[in-house]
Amino acid sequence: MSALEFRVAIRDALAEEMERDERVVFFGEDIAAAGGVFKVTTGLHERFGDARVFDTPISELALSGAAFGAAVTGLRPVVEIMFGDFMALPMDALVNQAAKFFYLSNEQAPVPLVVRCAVGGGGRFGAIHSQIPATWFQGVPGLKIVAPSTPAEAKGLLKASIRDENPVIFMEHKRLYSVKGDAAPAEETIPLGRARIARAGGDVTIVALMKGVSDALEAAELLSGEGVEAEVIDLRTVRPLDLETVLTSVAKTHRLVVVEEGPRLGGWAAGLLGAVGERALHDLDDAWLIATDELPVPYSPTLEDAFLPDAAAIAASVRARIAAGVA
Amino acid sequence: MARAQAPETETRAAADVLYLECYERMRLVRRFEQELHRLFLKGEVHGTTHLCAGQEAVPVGVCSALDEDDWVAGTYRGHGHALAKGTDPAALAAEMLGRATGVCAGRAGSMNVIDLAHGLVGCFGIVGASMGAALGAALSGKGRGGVAVAFFGDGATNQAYFHESLNFARVLDLPLVFVCENNLYGEFTPLAHSTAGADIAGRAAAYAIPSAEVDGNDLWAVRAAALEAVERARAGEGPTLLECLTYRHFGHSRSDPATYRPQEEVAAWLERDPLAIARERLLAEGFDAADVDAAEASADATVERAMADALAAPYPDPATDAAREFQP
What we know:
The complex is a heterodimer.
Chain A: E1 3-5, H1 6-20, E2 24-28, H2 44-48, E3 53-55, H3 60-71, E4 76-83, H4 91-104, E5 113-119, H5 134-138, E6 144-146, H6 151-163, E7 167-173, E8 180-182, E9 196-199, E10 204-208, H7 211-224, E11 230-234, E12 237-239, H8 243-253, E13 255-263, H9 268-280, E14 286-292, H10 301-307, H11 311-323
Parallel strand pairs in A: 2-3, 2-4, 4-5, 5-7, 6-7, 10-11, 10-13, 13-14
Antiparallel strand pairs in A: 1-8, 6-12, 9-11
Helix pairs in contact in A: 1-6, 3-4, 7-11, 8-9
Chain B: H1 12-41, H2 57-63, E1 71-75, H3 79-85, H4 89-96, E2 120-124, H5 129-141, E3 148-153, H6 160-171, E4 176-182, E5 185-186, E6 189-190, H7 191-194, H8 200-203, E7 211-215, H9 219-234, E8 240-245, H10 263-271, H11 274-284, H12 289-312
Parallel strand pairs in B: 1-2, 1-3, 3-4, 4-8, 7-8
Antiparallel strand pairs in B: 5-6
Helix pairs in contact in B: 1-3, 1-11, 1-12, 2-3, 2-9, 4-12, 5-6
């Protein structure tokens, strides 16, 4: 099987969906002529032309408002907000307008809209180009939030997001763009809202997203050498939340650790832990979080590396909790 | 609503009918707002509401220049926008009253009305959000001859939405008409205290967008300006900004007696009531008073029926409400 680069998987998904449905349009800052700052969308403008792929001013509010207005009047826009941190600017268009339209209008029309953004730390981009805005949006009914972990996942999930009739925030982790993996799976699209068992195991359940999934898999290999078999769940979406897959796993492993590249207070991981506790406290021998300090993402490589969760940190944490003999 | 025609092709007979229809629609909006105010005082309208009485010539004049499948984005002072674009008065009234027969089944309320079937993308409770939505509607319309209109108040011209949207619309040459209803107060604050330069139409020049300051209480002036702007948009020549000077007869919202407005100013604007101006002009142009009276009576009767229907309609039943978060 040929290897597929993550950024190419995104590009292919966009191209295939634009080919498939002429209502799909794509716009954002520097996505057309320049092909995007991460070179994800190279060639799309040449292929599909000015009317369907175009650069916009640096106006996140206007371009997101335009995407909302276009989605409810017949187009299926995909927009790029260059960095997830910039999602603070179009909040009104997404949270107050796009997310609520389907319900408020009494279902007069769907809102088929995708907002792509590059997220996450590790690139030495500093505090305001490194955040993961998942939890800014998680508490907003009407939004779907997608966070792929591999090239094949990215392709299948983006294609599903573009075909979805609802506003989707699609987060692409910057440290995954150059990752290569197996080409697309047999199924063309991956349903939104269903988690994936990335690795089976019976001793502890590790839940993660995006780059965190590869960290968790690496940690699982380390632990396996020590006789601990971890089950790794790639949550894929944080809204809707696939609680059932996590509950099924926890019923087997009785230990749950949720890994979030972000602060512990108010994070999606804390929410997941609470939801599992509410439903399945009786199944749990131990449950905890691995998250970042309650600080902005630091710039200096030494500080940033220490700040972000990684495979070693996950393995060490699992080792320590099990050794503490909670079960 | 009558469909748009270019001024030079408007025969006297067609124009006559059109202006009388517009007058009837303005009267409908006025009566609707007055009745809503009355029902508000009786506790039938919940939360808050923002009435547009005094500003009727702007939505009615602008929408008279649009086709049925053009798009309009209104404001939280949006009952006139909805009624001018063709929303059923009974369904709008029921929405205000939170009833199941409302245009959004009681889910939206006064500030968030949506009526896509009549080209209303929405009324927006966030100051300036209508402009963002209208950008998208204009994108959808571009290439198939469609036009979008964004209504907004003077207060919205200090929002990011205003500046980003004007620039965005010009850069992409979108078929969009920006219609500022300048009623001189952003909520309770006078324009001059909040708006640098105090020249809204003048701001368009910075974006190379044609603009005009329009007497927003004169139906004829509004319609003429709107026809020109719509024609420009349909011809692929991009956006226009119209600053329509007008005045609201009520306060900002239900809790606002508007005591911050000088009495002389209020009196002067009440003298320039857009309905009185329109009636006088119709009579001066030779309309029978009986026809004008009949238009008024027809509007009044429509509103009376709409309110009666709304009051008789049931509230939505939470037990049977089939709300869904997502479109499957």
